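G., the chain you wanted modeled:
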Amino acid sequence: MGITVTDRAARHIERFLSKESGVGLRFGVKTVGCSGLSYTFECARETKNDDVCFSSSGVNVVVNKADLLFIDGSILDFERKGLNEIFKVTNPKAMATCGCGESFTVENTELSGEEK
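Predicted structure as tokens:
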């Protein structure tokens, strides 16, 4: 399936990468929050052997193979609300989110207990 980036998110990623000199946006998950997983975003300065790279709307998204299990098929959008800027993720694998919206759970997928 892969990761899809909207045009609005792609413009934001392009600006970010031009300042950071990265090869793409690293999109992943970490174990936190009330529901178990939270999204992570950072500059990918290089790709690693266990990475999968996607190109969407003219930008590269780099995902660790282990994280792909939780976010494959996601759509990455970008929103500005007042002074706040956030990536909005539509994840078909997310079955529930916590009340604050910071974390999510994935059905039928066991977390290893290892910190991501």
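The chain has two helices and nine strands.

Shout if anything looks off.
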